[in-house]
Amino acid sequence: MNSDETITWGELFKNTSVDLGNEQEARWLCEHASGLDASEFNSGLSELVSDRCGVALREMVRRRLSGEPLQYVMQCWSFRHLDVFVDPRVLIPRPETELVVQIALDSVRNTAQKIDRKMRIVDLGTGSGVIGLALASELPLASAEVWLTDISNDALDVARANLAGLGLVDGDVRLVQGDWFSALPNQLKNSFDLVISNPPYIAVYDASVESVVRDYEPHLALYAGNDGMDAHRQIISQAGEWLVARGLLVLEIGHEQGLEIRNLLEENGFNSIEIRQDYSQRDRIALARKT
Hints:
Elements lengths: L8 H12 L2 H12 L3 H6 L7 H15 L4 H5 L1 E4 L2 E4 L9 H20 L4 E6 L5 H9 L5 E7 L2 H13 L7 E5 L14 E6 L13 H6 L13 H13 E10 L5 H10 L2 E8 L5 E8 L1
Parallel strand pairs: 3-4, 3-6, 4-5, 6-7
Antiparallel strand pairs: 1-2, 7-9, 8-9
Helix pairs in contact: 1-2, 2-4, 6-7
């Protein structure tokens, strides 16, 4: 790249596109380095780049060219209507998980209208917090109490930062550390209207995992035993103790796990079981209700 303060953002954008071989990624990084949104960046293409912004952009390009995921390089990403902070302590939010949230929202909105109390929700293994925070922000104001749990204090620090950044610190969102349901106070058993989770579901010896995922994303949030089912077994076996009657369990699952998950849910007394598909028409979301 040329020296800073003698080059415009338009020129730097063009150079960055060549360096990365990807115009869209170059735009995102340039917008991020400049601190401008898309429309502001378009209007500022003729402006000179400050030295500080140029240094920041070069470092981001270096990291991206080394193979680091774009989301970790930028330390932010969009999830539904939220812009959230992400780093290597948590999984990168994905479109499939946005669909999990939408299906949960569609299923519980009627519940919120029928009960004369706040709906109680728990997002197990919350990571960056995107599932629980999206639910808290999209449900009617003050209609839900949302609990976010994770065994990793590092992950909870990221979720806590996202909670603060979204302005939802009003007592209706609570973060607690622990392994799945063990994070929750015992007095909350049989009180949750919705249990939702995107737990790890990759087998530890799965050679099909992309290197960029294997090398950068947290293994604790990716792998779940020899068959990728350990986390689902634990959640499904315990969920009935925490849900209200007819309470809803929503889980993201591996695309080859639909039949096994259905059998697990039936064995644990759930009914109204559905296995929904993702945008690629592969099994991805399991829904079931407590009897």
